[in-house]
Amino acid sequence: MRRLHFVPFVVLLAASEMMPGSATAQAKLSTSNTKARNLWEKAQEQAKDRDFTKAIETLSQLNQKFPSLGEPYVMKGSLLKALGENRSAFEAYRDGVAKLPLDPARANDYFTLGELAISFGEYTTAADSYKKYLKTATKSTRNAPRAQRQLLNCEFAQKAMATPTGLQPERLPDPLNTYRFQYFPALTADSRFLLFTGRPTAESGEDLFVSRQNKDGSMGAPASISPAINTPYNEGAGAISGDGKTLVFASCDRPNSVGNCDLYISRRTGNTWSKPQNLGRNVNSAEWDSQPTLSADGRTLYFTSTRRGGKGQEDIYVTTLGADGNWSLARNLGAPVNTAGKDMAPFIHASGTTLYYVTDGLVGMGGLDVYRCEQQGPSKWSTPQNLGYPLNTFENEASLFISSDNRRGFCSRSRAAESGVKQERDRPVELFGFEVPKEVKARETSTYTQGRVFDAFTKKPIQADVQLYDLNTDELVQYVGSDAENGEYTVVLNEGRQYAMYAAADKYLMKSLSFDYSDKRSFDPLTLDIYLEPVRAGRSIVLNNLFFDSKQYELKPKSRTELNRLIGFMKQYPDVQVEISGHTDDIGSDDDNQVLSQNRAKSVYTYLVSQGVKATRLRFRGYGETKPLLPNDSDEHRQQNRRIELRIL
Fold first, then answer.
1. Which terminus of the chain has a lower count of CB atoms within 10 Å, N or C?
2. Which pTM does this prediction carry?
3. What pLDDT, in 10s, does the model give residues 97-107?
């Protein structure tokens, strides 16, 4: 049997529940009526012979002819449950228990009814059944802690349903949802590509599919992601980076694998995906590793694992890609994210600050619910918060995805049972979408800038490193590469932040760009092509991330990111000599502007020398307002004219 990466919508029942042939099935009938007793004994013999279908028919006759008797209903419920017909089993148990007096001998029946009831969202019946179980069962029974926990779940669920968070998710329209099963939806940062796992039929294996956004915003017909990815083995639970160029997915039972299901990585150049590579023993274990999610730049990976040493059966782990190209040893996220229950299907928002995942280890709606928690520092997460109803229901939730702009969410849901479908796991699964309510949104909203990187001289696309720094912390927050074939790049930006972005390639001057979203004036996606100048005499760049107070020349602390990049450039090209030039707008006197520009250029020169750059390789000069880039006819143009430049001598 193929090992799947999806969490099927199954009913979770305790191992100690009653089965046919147990004390329940052998219970005495509370009547002396000969006809009733004959039918009862006949059903007993049929169940003993494992002919459950005939036994159920006999018990149904008892129900019809002697509707006041509770025992036949309870026994029929146990047989139906053994056959996987849980909805009918619930109804039989419910009707039977209601007809019988409270009896300690029926404690396990109460518990089973509670489990069945909560699995169908019948919270009033479930709560009543758990209370009966706790009242009649011995204190040492193994199911008492679960019954107490399920009571809390019933209370939470009833309150959640009384105060919904947002609207019901809606089924995504055709041509999506054309397969029998589709789940684990994931979008690129620009929402152009929707990735999901699909199984065309119940008998087929899992594959990865992609739907491309049409010009009108609708999604096109899904297609296999690539013959390099999809094989006769199972490929599922894919995660894609914000730029759509890094894919991590799970596959099972491949040759030379580490465990039974491992994580693999593939990278896209142009329209071609590379041959998948196993992520190795730092990431994969001898157990089941699946359900990955990638940070926007594809350099941080969260995933689910059943490896030993966790807090529960399934836990969430994290690994990061180092500068040497190797992934770090995966570590358990620990509490409060991981619990003693099942902790699965993580999703890290494009902002990198909010994690969503499913667990049954916290109080919720009774099964696997979706929770969100916020990063509060390195390796530190806030207390997980349940997303409430209707994103959580009595079903087991599978996964959740929130778009980078916090507007649109995606999930998968099992369709209502069809005629002839008796097993919960065989119910079709479809993709749904929803408008994200405030309480569900990631802590930070993201946008993106994307474009292409070119050689400024030849106008040909080039492969370059694109790095994004938070200017307030000097932290490298994203590191992506432009496409070697077409020069495309995508970088995700968070609302409320101020960034420095650098594009750099060997033998080219770095390009310095600045993005300031700290005042939330505009937060729309940007299309920005980047042209890199070769490292040649006479070529120059504007240093957009050096900051001074008005009419002052002391460098502000957030200039350190740019200054450190300059130092790195001078070390990379030890024979290069440069001029640092200062420029102003036309406000103020010519003499004052000349002095100010000279002093600002000198400040940069002095810093570089203090950090070990030889003074003989540097010179500085102020040009005042004599070399504007643009006419000084607007605040925006004047801002661009106030600048520091670096020119190759």
1. N
2. 0.91
3. 999 999 999 99
